[in-house]
Specification:
Heat Shock Protein 90, five-stranded antiparallel sheet, 7 helices, 5 strands
């Protein structure tokens, strides 16, 4: 756990914390967190506020859908979810982290690498293709979350993984928005 906390503390250096949540997650907390994001984003312009909220929703949905729910049984901790929104100068960073298994990790990284390698036009076409496909993922969605995050962000989707025993990984998303 120390490496996770240290990593997030490094992210926070010399930045203003807009919102920080560390702990378990459930439907009630999801609603509270989204309400707080909406309330705290009032300080930004309409465009950044909207993108901050939409990206946060996608990231939180990913966290909720792909988190290992009973992490305490695996590595003896109740801690399983981090969300931090930071501000520095003209950038807002949305950073999330959660435990995933090896299969989930591979799926997430594959999708991120695909969208990070595409132009805006290619991403928009990819989005339309999947949307028109009408297929659902095993989690019930259309598989558009990471694509949508990339479409609304101002940079590549950054990520980091911290390896744990038993084929577990703490996966960290870092999304940057320009506060123009």
């Amino acid at each position: 756990m120390n490496r996770i906390i240290e990593t997030f503390n490094n992210f926070k250096k010399n930045k203003t914390i807009i919102l920080e949540y560390i702990g378990k997650i459930d439907n009630t907390l999801l609603e509270q967190i989204l309400f707080e994001i909406e309330k705290k984003s009032e300080q930004f312009g309409k465009s950044i506020k909207r993108r901050l909220f939409l990206i946060s929703v996608e990231l939180i949905q990913n966290l909720y859908a792909y988190s290992i729910k009973k992490i305490k049984d695996e590595i003896n901790t109740d801690f399983c979810f981090i969300l931090i929104i930071l501000n520095k100068d003209s950038e807002i960073e949305i950073i999330t982290g959660n435990f995933v298994n090896e299969l989930q990790l591979k799926k997430i990284i594959t999708k991120i690498n695909i969208v990070n390698s595409q132009t805006i036009e290619e991403i928009n076409q990819y989005y339309r293709t999947i949307l028109n496909n009408n297929k659902r993922t095993e989690k019930g969605g259309a598989g558009l979350g990471i694509i949508d995050i990339k479409r609304k962000s101002d940079d590549k989707i950054n990520f980091l993984q911290i390896n744990y025993p038993k084929n577990l990984y703490f996966f960290i998303f870092k999304i940057i928005l320009k506060n123009k």
